[in-house]
C-alpha cells in the first residue's frame, strides 16, 4: 500500500472510532468511505471555478457527503433509548441512510481533491516532503468534512486541534489511548525483605502525579507481591482509576465486591507461573466467567477479560457480557523474529478492531516496553494500555516520575515530555 493511502486508512479508522465513541450503538461495518482525487492545477482549477466560482488553482477542496452532525444524528437514531419519533429519527427519515443495525451502517464521508502540483510547490517552500504536505492537505480536507471551519477565531482553534489530533495519529501515536501503570513490582521489592518499603501506595500517588490515567494491581492467590492492605489503601487513595486484576475465584470475587475497584480484570492464574502466562480461556470456562461477570456487575463493577488476540475469545468475551477485553500482547513482545513480531502485531490489530466493532472497550498489555510499545500504540482501536514491569524496571534507574512520563510520551505521541 502506498504511504499516502495508508495515511488515509489510518485517519478513516480513527474517524470511525471517534463516531463509535459517541454512541455505543453506532458500529460501522467498514471504514467510512472517502474518495480522494489527486489531480493537477488545471484539474483543481476547473472544480474550484465550477463549485465556488473561483477560477484559479488551489491546494485542496473537500466536499462533505453527509455532515458530521448527520452522523451524530444517525448515532442517536440507532440508540435504543430514544423514542422512535424523536427529532433524530425524523432527521434520519429525511435522508436515505442504511439503518440495518445488524450489518452496521456504511458512512460515506465525501470527496477530497488535492492538486499534487500545488502540494509539491508548497512542500518545497515549507522544506518538507511531498508526502508530508499531501498528508497535511488530507488532514485539512478531512477536518472540513467533519464540519470544522477556520472562518472564526474560536472555530479555527477547534479545527487546529482536530488537525493536530489527526497529525499525531499519522505520527504513530494514538493520543486518545490511556496509560495505566501496574505497580505490582514495587510490592515485589518490598516483599523481598518482608518489610514496608517501598510502598506501592506511595508509588501509585507518584504515578498519578506523573500523569498516568490509572493504577493496576494484581492481587494473586499466593499474595506474592500485592497484599490485601495495599488494595484497601489504594481504593481510598487512587484518584484516577483503580483496576484490580484477579482470578475468578470465590475469594477474589468477595474481595472485589467489598472493595469495589473501578474495574476488575479477570486473568487466569497458576501458582507456579512467573507472571500471567496466557489469556483467559473464556470459551472453556464460559459459565464460570459469565457468573463472575454478572456478580461483579451486580456490585456495580465493570469487567475486563484478559484474552489472547483470537477472534473466538473476543466474541466469547462479548457473549458473557464483559465490558472490555484486555488483549494479551505477550506473544508480540516476546516474538523471536521480526516476521513473527509482524504476525503477532497483525493478530493484535485484528483483535482490537473486532473488539471495538463489537462495542467492547479495548485494553492491551503484557510485556510492553519502551521499544515495542510504539507500534501497538498507533493502533487507534486500543483505548488503554496496562504496563508494569518495564516502567518499574526503568524507574529503579531513572526515577518513577521520569519513567512514567517517558512511557506516556510513547503511548500518546505528540504529548510533550
Ligand atoms: N496486563 C495483565 C493482565 C497482566 O497480568 C500484566 C502483568 O501483571 C500486565 C498487563 C502488565 O504486564 P507487564 O508487567 O509485562 O507490563
Notes on the structure:
The longest helix has 20 residues, at 3-22. 50% of the residues lie in helices and 14% in strands. It has an eight-stranded parallel β-barrel, surrounded by eight helices. By secondary structure, the chain is of the alpha/beta class. The chain has helices at residues 3-22, 41-52, 68-78, 87-94, 116-126, 130-145, 153-170, 184-193, 200-209, 228-237, 250-259, 286-298, 311-319, 330-333, 338-357, 373-377, 389-398, 400-411, and strands at residues 33-39, 60-64, 108-115, 178-182, 214-218, 242-246, 263-266, 303-307, 324-328, 361-365, 384-387. It folds into two domains: 2-170, 3-Layer(aba) Sandwich (Collagenase (Catalytic Domain)); 178-412, Alpha-Beta Barrel (TIM Barrel), CATH 3.20.20.70. It has 18 helices and eleven strands. It is elongated and about 75 Å long. Pyridoxine-5'-phosphate is lined by residues 182, 184, 218, 245, 265, 267, 275-276, 306, 326, 365-368, 386-390. Pyridoxine-5'-phosphate binds at residues 182, 184, 218, 245, 265, 267, 275-276, 306, 326, 365-368, 386-390.
Amino acid at each position: 500500500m502506498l504511504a499516502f493511502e495508508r495515511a488515509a486508512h489510518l485517519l478513516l479508522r480513527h474517524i470511525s472510532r471517534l463516531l463509535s465513541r459517541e454512541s455505543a450503538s453506532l458500529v460501522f461495518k467498514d471504514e467510512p468511505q472517502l474518495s480522494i482525487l489527486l489531480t493537477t492545477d488545471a484539474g483543481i482549477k476547473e472544480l474550484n471555478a465550477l463549485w465556488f466560482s473561483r477560477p484559479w488553482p488551489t491546494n485542496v477542496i473537500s466536499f462533505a457527503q453527509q455532515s458530521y452532525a448527520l452522523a451524530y444524528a444517525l448515532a442517536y437514531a440507532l440508540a435504543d433509548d430514544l423514542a422512535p419519533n424523536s427529532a433524530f429519527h425524523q432527521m434520519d427519515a429525511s435522508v436515505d441512510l442504511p439503518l440495518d443495525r445488524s450489518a452496521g451502517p456504511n458512512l460515506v464521508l465525501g470527496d477530497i481533491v488535492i492538486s499534487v502540483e500545488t502540494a509539491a510547490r508548497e512542500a518545497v517552500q515549507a522544506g518538507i516532503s511531498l508526502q508530508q504536505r499531501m498528508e497535511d492537505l488530507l488532514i485539512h480536507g478531512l477536518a472540513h468534512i467533519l464540519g470544522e471551519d477556520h472562518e472564526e477565531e474560536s472555530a479555527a482553534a477547534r479545527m487546529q486541534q482536530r488537525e493536530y489530533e489527526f497529525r499525531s495519529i499519522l505520527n504513530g501515536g494514538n493520543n486518545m489511548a490511556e496509560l495505566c501503570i501496574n505497580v505490582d513490582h514495587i510490592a515485589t521489592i518490598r516483599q523481598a525483605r518482608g518489610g514496608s518499603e517501598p510502598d506501592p501506595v506511595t508509588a501509585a500517588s507518584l504515578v498519578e502525579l506523573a500523569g498516568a490515567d490509572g493504577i493496576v494491581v494484581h492481587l494473586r492467590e499466593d499474595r506474592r507481591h500485592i497484599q490485601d492492605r495495599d488494595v484497601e489503601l489504594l481504593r481510598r487513595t487512587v484518584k484516577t482509576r483503580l483496576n484490580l486484576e484477579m482470578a475468578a475465584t470465590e475469594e477474589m470475587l468477595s474481595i472485589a465486591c467489598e472493595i469495589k475497584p473501578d474495574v476488575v480484570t479477570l486473568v487466569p492464574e497458576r501458582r507456579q507461573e512467573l507472571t500471567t502466562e496466557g489469556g483467559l480461556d473464556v470459551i472453556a470456562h464460559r459459565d464460570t466467567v459469565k457468573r463472575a461477570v454478572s456478580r461483579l456487575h451486580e456490585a456495580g463493577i465493570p469487567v475486563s477479560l484478559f484474552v489472547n488476540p483470537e477472534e473466538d475469545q473476543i466474541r466469547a468475551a462479548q457473549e458473557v457480557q464483559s465490558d472490555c477485553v484486555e488483549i494479551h500482547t505477550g506473544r508480540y513482545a516476546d516474538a523471536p523474529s521480526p516476521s513473527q513480531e509482524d504476525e503477532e502485531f497483525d493478530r493484535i490489530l485484528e483483535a482490537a478492531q473486532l473488539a471495538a466493532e463489537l462495542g467492547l472497550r479495548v485494553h492491551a498489555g503484557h510485556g510492553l516496553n519502551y521499544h515495542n510499545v510504539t507500534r501497538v500504540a498507533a493502533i487507534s482501536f486500543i483505548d488503554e494500555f496496562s504496563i508494569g514491569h518495564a516502567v518499574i524496571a526503568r524507574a529503579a534507574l531513572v526515577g518513577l516520575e521520569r519513567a512514567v512520563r517517558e512511557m506516556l510520551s510513547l503511548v500518546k505521541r505528540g504529548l510533550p515530555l
